[in-house]
Amino acid sequence: MKKILCTTLPSNDLGLLTRTLPVARELAAMGYEVAYCNPAPAPAALIAEAGLENLPPKPWPMPSAFAPSTMEVWNLDHFWALIGYLDENFIRGSCEAMMALMTDYGADVVLDSWNISACLAARALGKPLVSIIQADMHPANRGFIWWKEPPPDVPSPVPALNRVLPDYGLPPVRRSEELHVGDLTLIAGTPETDPFSEKADVIHVGPILWQRPDAALPDWIGALSREKPLVWVYTGNPSYGPVAPWADSIVLLRGCVAALADEDVQVVLTTGHHDLPEDALASLPANFRYEPYLPGIAMAERSDLLIHHGGHGSSMTGPYTGTPAVIVPTYSERESNARRVAALGAAAVVVPTEGVSGEKDVSVEELRAKVRQVLSDPSFALNAKRMAETIRTYGGASEAARLIDSFAKRV
Known about the structure:
By secondary structure, this protein is of the alpha/beta class.
């Protein structure tokens, strides 16, 4: 049976991994040999939990050129410029590393979600590429900030990419999004949550969310009172360090602690296998309970309200389980997701502000008010349940695996 190599952006996040893990498990059950390559601690923990092989990465250089830090990330071009793809040597080195990995593993098909170096390497080697993305990552759409016109000077890696692409016999691109379009491109959402402004050769498969088949909530969750609302706060990675401080979710954590400490709610806080900063752990209010990781679908089904950072997977979890949300998007890709769900009436949004030094802040008063609004207004829960009815008609991971299986048999 053919070998499939799964790649994602190698950041210390769970969102992209949960988008492909259920598909990888389905493909493995069909008889494919499936492996990942993601060395980051949180993804590595989930890959191990799923019982899949996680290959060690090949060495590649560190980037030396970055666009100025900002929460206002206009599109994928801007995103890649922010994390080092202005550096031609880095692009070449990361591509060569991925090419060596694919060759050594003997990959027959590459299944990617948001790793431009893997997409470039697959094309350079002539490997069939399946891409699982969201609508605002596709070149047929307007990017992450689709509600505003971009300025003329958005940083872009395209000049550096176009100096590298000819080395591998590949044509130039106008936007980096073109490299994320696979031979088969699947959208991990629905036309409601991930609309297209024009016709594109994509297939909506619905949300793809990971939870182990035998996953269960701990007993202490079951012992929580049914008389008080249960609020699940999911921050994701509180800090990305110096590489991407604009994506940090510590602002969400601090805002929720301040806004919910005196509210008559029960709060369960998770970070997705990330460490909680010691000062935050020591100062959690009495109505908070911290757990590094809990099964997301089960936790959302038990909760009355989700509060999260706006990642695409988190934004799909509430509609999938019929649970309303308050979303605090920590940069504009997440704001895009948040706006889509809010426009469908299943969430309220509190957008952080950014100071001149780049420090993010969230209005505690606005956050508290939005939490009270969503908990007291039944329309949010009704709209979330309506979305769940639609979303669950899509095949999700099973349909994605079926399509990939059909594709792999043809190539």
